[in-house]
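Hi R.,

Here's the chain you asked about this morning:
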Amino acid sequence: MDKLERILSRPVAKPYRSGSILREEQPYLNDDGHVDFSEDDIENPKQWGRGRRWYITIVSISLVLNATFASSAPSGCLEGISEEFGVSTVAAGLVITLFLLGYCFGPLFFAPLSEFFGRRWIFYGTFICYIVFNFLCAWAPNFGALLAGRFITGTFASAPLSNAPGVLADLWGPVERGNALALFSMITFAGPGISPAIAGFLQLTLNWRWTFYVLLWMGGITLLFLFTIPETHPGTVLTNKAKRIRRLQIPGYENVQSPMEASGQTLTQIFKVALTRPWIILFDPISFLVALYISVTYTLLYMLFTIYPIVFRQMRGWNSGVSELPLIGTVIGAALGALMVFLNSLKVAKRMKAGETIKPEDRLPLAMGGGIGFFICMFWFGWTANFNSVHWIVPTIAGVFLASSIVLIFVSFLNYLTDTYLMYAASAIAANTVARSAAGAAAPLFTNQMFTALGVGGGASLVGGVAALLAVVPFVFYKYGEGIRKRSRFAPTPSKEDEESQDSEKEKEKEQGGEAAPATSDSSTSVASSVSSTEHRTASASHEKEHKRDEDVHQNAFGEPRTENVNFGKE
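And the predicted structure, written out as tokens:
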């Protein structure tokens, strides 16, 4: 009994775990005989104190802030870079392009690694490498070294962008996670909005290298906090727990395993799926159109870092620091968009508590409103910025609502992807990440020529016209999305029989006192998904009939359930 007490009392010393566990309890095993989280398990990240979970959330999102801040920071000092190395301003823009290309490659490798080794160690390794190679950027002896440093730092900086949503899935339930993801999305847009102004003033008063010194200071401070957060990946936590039990040789539990260990998956198998499935899912109708829409919005985001200097520096004669200040309006807009997401989450929570089933298409009204606002604000910005006689505050306000619209589109569609693809959501999000990053990487290479040739009004009208065409996408999905999902190879949709069974289960629950059915395992919760647990189980069960012999469901690097070893050629 002494050994049993030791294994169960050990977590009490952890500051993020409760000391209320009873010592006479035995290690909890699921129906398959594997170590799992029991109800109110003190080792389950979702059961940690609220303050502790928010602390981990903020630290994780601060890593994202470092990445997004660094992505656009050089746009405020491109003139200094071009002067020192004797290259054109367009060529200097490659420091942004190559950083964003690093975004394309990083998630495909770091997400599977975090699934295998846990999130914490991937955060440690990638962020330390990000800081190290920022030294190369800060003291680059030539332009080639600067470009190499930017590509490598972009690759390592992409790890928080792919793994931070997984941390949020580890820590929060469906409704609360939506609020955390709103903060994540706001930072995704706030970082690029703030950094060009800081870089512009540093170039005026010091030189362009100070931009990278600031990145090093930010990274160093963040690294100190990073070392304080624990592992949150449920699969890794359960594996560590199973190893602890085996070491103690508790009678009857000498060979116990976690679900991840029992799956027998190797790193090679995980990489095989991670490097092939996203490209297959990318061309699924829903995934493709969402990737196309978000790629356009992401391209515009990085076009703004060239458009604003044209409008406020070249046309109005402001200096390199002041001309970047209107970009702060996009930060305000991102915060406003996040607030709208938060208010919408409250409505969704009320509907879920009332027993209403939330369908993936219920995520789309935010994108519908954001899509309309996107093209309206683009025309508003372009034709007010086109004339110096119009006060500068008018296009700046347009930029505020433009950023809000982009956040609504971004969050709404990422939630829609997650709710649509469930077990395959990680692959859908990975494909989306690569597509939008590649599109954003191209923005600095053509924006200046495009707006010089067409003018600010003409260039904005071209972007606004494309946005107007794409604005119909969420409306189409809202009306026909369920039918499209039923015909998809990767979007599990409950059949009518399953839905009728679900309704009958709810009626029985009401008759028996209104107790809810047990929730699904925390280790199989999708990122940003507010789908009810019953619907999730029904959808998963329906899909399991099709892939029963090959399935091995477990939580992937993005925090969503994922089915491995599916033979895509035999659907």
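The longest strand covers residues 553-555.

Let me know if you need anything else.
M.
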